[in-house]
């Protein structure tokens, strides 16, 4: 069932260009049924070996429970501006059990992990909460396990606090509250808690299940309590990952360094990243040249749940992109090629839609103009031939002929309309009630009936049902396939309507 879900997810994510080999027939049929897509079934997977060269890669099916090993939780800090997110992250970043042997300058690389006195570890994303969260969500990568909602005790719940709550809820990420600035003179922890409850955050001390830790990021008070609460929460969530097999990770931040070139901070989600590995993010390739932590310390490997700054990118991927390991640079280039052509195809489709909608609009405007002209301007046809039939009077007494023209194609229709346009007859009004391309329809007949008009079908059919309707309503339908003959016919009709020469 897990595999079926995976296959369905693949389809739902519109990546059906990929090949999924399923040996179990029943599983396959179930997958196809649930995905609502059609699948090309090949008896022998070797039949499609060539397709595989150009195909994209996708994350593996999710790991089984037995493959999961504990990993540090990934935490995003969110909250209203000035409530102390940066101060808290700075304080946490410098919470070191052992001072770095490098004594190195702590750098901002987008994420860092801390080790607690208990030995437990936590990874914090320190890119601005909202932006990072949105970028990740847009690309479907949700790497945050827990959101720390920072609320200043002297300010309470504010606009961006509410926004943060909404975003975390939408992403189904549990919230842990840090009530900050408890050292501030106007701090009111209880009132802040009440405001949280009013906004749907059921804090523990008021009978709910959301932990709320009162802290001072500035004075570094209760930070241990906060981190321990995070560890507890992670245990409850059974945060885990599979450290074996090809690496899967997510880009948190990327930048260009004047000496070190293109750098990219990733958080590993699965597998273990090592130097020399080949990874792909979107259409960017990287043979991992070096891996460092936020202290600038060289790492030999990165396990799931940990961030690292990776060097060796040929291009810079964007935050939120999924990173996948491949076996060689050749495969990486194939994958990138497949993705680029998919993108190009999508772009072409987008362009085609844009162009056709523009054309449609142009066409519509042109036709409206033409219609207006033909309705308003009276078509004058030169009278010729015999006269003497009874006159159908217009309101002002002028004889009138009402036409409905149907043609097989646009070009003929235009030619017909232009020809009719060139005739003049002051004594008879020619009104083009309706025109169009295609077969005669019931609505054409209805229109002809109400306008007392004649239908001219040029190279276009009239289905028997319409023919019957026309007969019942005495609507004349005239078929032609030569333009001048149709025009002659119209002239004839006009002449029939003109008064006899006395
Ligand atoms: P951010 O916009 O949420 O990142 O907020 P900052 O971390 O930049 O903090 C905004 C202001 O609040 C700064 O002047 C901080 O010094 C101050 N601040 C942050 N935490 C505390 C705290 O625990 N107590 C007090 N009194 N001030 C704090």
Report on this structure.
This is Translation initiation factor IF-2, mitochondrial isoform X1. Keywords: GTP-binding, Initiation factor, Nucleotide-binding, Protein biosynthesis. GO terms for molecular function: translation initiation factor activity. With 502 residues, this protein is α/β, with parallel strands linked by helices. The chain is 35% helix and 22% strand. The protein contains 13 helices and 20 strands. The protein has helices at residues 2-12, 25-35, 49-53, 85-93, 129-138, 159-170, 189-198, 223-237, 329-376, 410-421, 442-451, 464-472, 483-497, and strands at residues 69-70, 74-79, 111-115, 121-125, 146-152, 175-180, 212-214, 240-241, 248-257, 261-270, 273-274, 278-281, 284-292, 301-302, 307-313, 322-326, 400-407, 429-437, 454-458, 477-480. The chain has a six-stranded mixed sheet, with helices on both faces. The longest helix is centred in the C-terminal third of the chain and has 48 residues, at 329-376. It is elongated and about 115 Å long. Residues 11-23, 41-53, 96-103 and 377-394 have low confidence and may be disordered. It binds guanosine-5'-diphosphate (GDP). Guanosine-5'-diphosphate binds next to α4.
């Amino acid at each position: 069932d897990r595999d079926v879900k995976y296959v369905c997810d693949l389809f739902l994510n519109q990546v059906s260009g990929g090949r999924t080999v399923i040996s179990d027939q029943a599983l396959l049929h179930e997958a196809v049924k649930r995905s609502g897509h059609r699948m090309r079934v090949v008896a022998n997977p070797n039949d499609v070996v060539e397709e595989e060269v150009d195909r994209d890669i996708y994350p593996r099916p999710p790991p089984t429970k037995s493959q999961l090993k504990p990993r540090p939780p990934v935490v995003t800090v969110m909250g209203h501006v000035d409530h102390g997110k940066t101060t808290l992250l700075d304080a946490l970043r410098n919470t070191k059990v052992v001072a770095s042997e490098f004594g190195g300058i702590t750098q901002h690389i987008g994420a860092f992990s801390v080790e607690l006195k208990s030995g437990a570890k936590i990874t914090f994303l320190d890119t601005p909460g909202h932006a990072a969260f949105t970028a990740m969500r847009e690309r479907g990568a949700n790497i945050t396990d827990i959101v720390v909602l920072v609320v200043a005790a002297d300010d309470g719940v504010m606009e961006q606090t509410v926004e943060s709550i909404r975003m975390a809820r939408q992403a189904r990420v549990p919230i842990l509250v840090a009530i900050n600035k408890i050292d501030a003179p106007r701090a009111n922890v209880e009132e802040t808690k009440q405001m949280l409850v009013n906004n749907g955050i059921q804090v523990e001390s008021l009978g709910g299940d959301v932990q709320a830790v009162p802290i001072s990021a500035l004075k570094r008070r209760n930070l241990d309590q906060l981190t321990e609460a995070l560890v507890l929460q992670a245990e409850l969530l059974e945060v885990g990952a599979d450290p074996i097999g090809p690496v899967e990770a997510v880009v948190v931040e990327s930048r260009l360094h004047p000496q070190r070139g293109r750098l990219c901070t990733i958080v590993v989600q699965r597998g273990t990243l090592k130097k020399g590995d080949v990874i792909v993010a979107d259409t960017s390739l990287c043979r991992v040249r070096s891996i460092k932590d936020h202290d600038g310390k060289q790492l030999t490997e990165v396990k799931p749940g940990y961030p690292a700054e990776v060097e060796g990118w040929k291009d810079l991927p964007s935050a939120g992109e999924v990173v996948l390991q491949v076996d060689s640079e050749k495969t990486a280039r194939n994958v990138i090629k497949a993705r680029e052509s998919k993108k190009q195809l999508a772009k072409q489709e987008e362009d085609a839609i844009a162009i056709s909608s523009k054309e449609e609009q142009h066409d519509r405007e042109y036709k409206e103009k033409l219609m207006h002209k033909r309705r308003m301007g009276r078509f004058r046809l030169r009278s010729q031939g015999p006269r003497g039939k009874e006159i159908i009077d217009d309101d002002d007494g002028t004889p009138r002929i009402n036409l409905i023209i149907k043609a097989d194609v646009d070009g003929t229709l235009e030619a017909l309309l232009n020809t009719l346009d060139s005739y003049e007859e002051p004594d008879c009004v020619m009104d083009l009630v309706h025109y169009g391309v295609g077969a005669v329809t019931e609505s054409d007949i209805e229109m002809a009936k109400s306008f007392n008009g004649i239908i001219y079908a040029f190279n276009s059919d009239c289905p028997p049902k319409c023919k019957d309707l026309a007969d019942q309503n005495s609507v004349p339908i005239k078929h032609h396939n030569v333009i001048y003959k149709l025009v002659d016919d119209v002239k004839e009709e006009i002449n029939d309507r003109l008064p006899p020469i006395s």
